[in-house]
Amino acid sequence: MNKAHELLTSFKARFGTGASVYRAPGRVNLIGEHTDYNEGFVLPAAIGFSCWVGISPRADGKLIVYSENFREVHETMWDGLGAHGSGHWWDYPLGVAWALQEAGYRLRGADIYIAGDVPLGAGLSSSAAIEVSTGYALLSAAGHAVDRTKLALLCQRAENEYVGARVGIMDQFVSCHGRAGQALLIDCRSLEYKAIRLPAKVSLVICNTMVKHKLQAGEYNVRRAECEEAVRKLSAAMPTIRSLRDVSMEQLAQNRSLLLEKLYRRCRHVVSENQRVRKVAELFEQGRTEGLRELMAASHQSMRDDYEISCRELDTMVEIAGRQRGVYGARMTGGGFGGCTINFVDVEHAAEFQRRVSAEYESAIGLHPDIYICEASQGAELVETTADNFPKVTR
Ligand code: GLA
C-alpha cells in the first residue's frame, strides 16, 4: 500500500470520513549556508522524505490535529490559536493556521492527520515539511488557490513569530517550489529562482552524524544578530547597503577596521559563500564537476573556522568522505552544530561510499550513521483525495 492510501485508511479509522492528502518534502542544501537571511543566494533541493497531511473540513470551527509520529492529538478552536506557540509539535501546524489567518485568509475547521518520514532534528527541514503540507491542506480545504511563494513566506512567518525561530526563507521555499531531478538557485532578496539540473553522474548522498548539539537554536539567532550588527557597522562607510548581500569581498577587506575580528569573520563567510553558490550553480548548469570539490571544501572550512557552526562529528564525517573514491565534494549542510553532511558522489560509487563511510564514521565516533542516497524531488502537492466535501477552489 502506498503512503497516501495508508494515510487515508488511518484517517478513516481515526476520524470516520474520507480525506484529501497533501505532501510536502524536506530539503538538503547543496551550498549557500546562512546566506538566506542575509538576502543572498542558496542552492537547495527538495528530497524524497516528506510530511503527509490528510484533511477533511469540519463545520464546527474546530481544528483537530493528530500526529502519527508523536501519537498525540490536539484540539483547538479557530479563535483560540493565540499569537505564540507553547513548545509542542502542534506549534507548527497551528502556527501556519495562525499566519494564514493573519494574512486575511478565511479558513474552516478541519480534522487533520499528520505523518512524516523526514528524520526529525537531522537538519533536513522536517519543520518546513510539516508547515508547508499543513498550509497547503488548510488553504485547499477552505477553497483557496495556493500561491506557492506566498505560502512559503507565511510558513516562514509562522516559524519566526509563532514558533520563535528566526529562520530564513530557504527551507519553506524549496519545499513549495522543489523540482524532481533539479536544485533551485534562489535569490533570497527578490525570491526569483531558477531550477538547475544536477549532472547525471552525480548522486546526492546525505550522511547523518546522528548528533544534534544543544547550541543549535540559540546560536542560530546569535549568528543572525551578528550579521545585522555588521551591516550597521559597515553602513558607516557604505550607506547604501541593506544586507551582507550588498557587500563584495573587496569592500569587506577595505572596511575591515570597522569590524571586530569575529564580526569580520562572520561577514567573510557570508560574502564568500554567496560567490561559491553562484560558481556551483554555473558548474551544474554546464553539467561540469571540475573545481566542485574545492568549492565544497572551502564552504565547509568557512563554516568551521569563520562562522563557527561545525562540530567534531561533522568535521569527521566530511574528512572521511573526502578520502573515498568517486567523491566530487562534501560539506556540512543546514544550520550546523550536528545534523547532516551533503556529498556529491559518482553514481557508480554511491553504494560503496555508503558502506565505507558508515563503517569509518562508526569506528571514529562510536555512532552508527544513517546514510541516504537521495534524489531531488518535487515540491508540495495534492496526492490523493477521497473527500467529497471539498469546496471548489476560488481565485
Ligand atoms: C536553517 C534555516 C534556513 C537557513 C539554514 C542555514 O535550515 O531554516 O533558513 O538559514 O539553516 O543555511
Question: Brief description of this entry?
Answer:
The protein has 395 residues and is of the alpha+beta class. The chain is 40% helix and 25% strand. The strands form 2 sheets. Strands 1, 2, 3, 4, 5, 6, 7 and 12 form an 8-stranded mixed sheet that branches. A 4-stranded antiparallel sheet has the order 9-10-8-11.
Report what the structure shows.
The chain has about 400 residues and is of the alpha+beta class. Helices cover about 40% and strands about 25% of the residues. Strands 1, 2, 3, 4, 5, 6, 7 and 12 form an eight-stranded mixed β-sheet that branches. A four-stranded antiparallel β-sheet has the order 9-10-8-11. α8 (about 260-285) runs antiparallel to α9 (about 290-305). The longest helix has 25 residues, at about 260-285. The relative contact order is 0.18. The model has no long low-confidence stretch (mean pLDDT about 95). Alpha-D-galactopyranose (GLA) binds near residues 34 and 167. The site of alpha-D-galactopyranose has 11 residues, from α5.
